[in-house]
Amino acid sequence: xxxxxxxxxxxxxxPRLYSGEREIAMDMRLMNLTAALRVxxxxxxxxxxxxxxxxxxxxxxxYVAPVMAGLLPFSASTLMxxxxxxxxxxxxxxxxxxxxxxxxxxxxWLTLVAVNLVMGGYLDIAVRDLVLALSALTFARLYELSSxxxxxxxxxxxxxxxx
Length: 163
Hints:
The protein is mostly helical. It is 67% helix and 7% strand. The chain has 6 helices and 3 strands. Strand 1 and strand 2 form a beta hairpin.
């Protein structure tokens, strides 16, 4: 037997739709935040990747840890061009192909970058990149949850019940 969902218009948060034991938060701000994070992470990766070819934002080669540079079969400059291509691909994936997948790759990539930065003594920048990695993981999960919600019937039903 299907139970009719009930509305809760509490002043302490967004309207919620209750259906049996399942609660569905009806808040369009979630979608807006997800879209903002998608653009931010997509552009960040794409523009940082593009800059690996121009060095306008930074001299990227200086951030390659000496230990890592010694292990490379090519120059740090060549590494930065490879990094640039990967970052642009990740950015485009986030923006236009599969946002969650791109964000998971960005999180892993940023973690590897942070390890390199720690080895090179750039601890402050490594911390920033680890925070960005955690943010990318959060965005990926948020995007997956938003997509699952959009694909379910609940938002359509809730839209009919909650003005």
